[in-house]
Structures are given as C-alpha cells and as structure tokens.
Design goal:
The chain is mainly β. Helix content is 0%, strand content 55%. Strands 2, 4, 5, 6, 9, 10 and 11 form a seven-stranded mixed β-sheet that branches. Strands 1-3-8-7 form a four-stranded antiparallel β-sheet, with no helix packed on it. The radius of gyration is 14 Å and the shape is elongated. The termini are far apart.
Length: 121
C-alpha cells in the first residue's frame, strides 16, 4: 500500500523556521499533485500549498512570501520550507498526494498522519 511519512514538525519560536518533509512509499507509478494542509484546534482543515508534477504552485494568502513548497520527484518527496513563523501558524500539518499506483489505474488521494507544528515563545 501507499504510505506518506512526514517529518520535521516541532516547537519553534516566532520568527523561526522549520522544514517539513513528506515521503511517499509503496506501489507508485507516478505522483501528480502534492500538497500541504493544516488544521488548528476548532478550525477547518485549510490548504497551505500545493505543487503539481510540473512544478507549478499555489499558496494560501496567509503564507505567501513566507512558505515555499517544493518536491523531489526522484525521491517521491514533497517539502514545505516555513520561514518567519507566527503563532497563528500553529497547527497539525498534513501532507497529501494524488498517486497513480499502476499504468492502468487512475489516481487516488492519500494523506499523511499529520505532524504538529507549534510556534510559541
């Protein structure tokens, strides 16, 4: 089966930086779009950033200029570089990916387990 494994979350002070990684493994023919979402307590899960296989990106307005999404297709990995972190960035961050498992299958959406990012002094 396909798994998405995240790493890089933790506690950081306001103004600091973190880099999240999410590696997909298992039966994978290709990966189309990949992305990061986040969910703060009592709030809906929201889009942070997405990146397509060709490299085009989209960002939530709240993170533009501070976060950068990237991917390494050879490693089936997506990254989220988070700079100038603010307390309001505190949330559980989830990786997702649209994955085609075989040459004859269509794509399915997979989610990581989530990783906690806490921005606090």
């Amino acid at each position: 089966q396909v798994q998405l494994v995240e790493s890089g979350g933790g506690l950081v002070q306001p103004g600091g930086s973190l880099r999240l990684s999410c590696a997909a493994s298992g039966m994978i023919f290709s990966i189309n779009a990949m992305g990061w979402y986040r969910q703060a307590p009592g709030k809906q899960r929201e889009l942070v950033a997405t990146i397509r296989s060709g490299g085009s990106t989209n960002y939530a307005d709240s993170v533009k200029g501070r976060f950068t999404i990237s991917r390494d297709n050879a490693k089936n990995t997506v990254y989220l570089q988070m700079n100038s972190l603010k307390p309001e960035d505190t949330a559980v961050y989830y990786c997702n990916a649209n994955i085609v498992r075989t040459i004859i299958s269509n794509e399915n959406l997979y989610w990581g387990q989530g990783t906690q990012v806490t921005v606090s002094s």
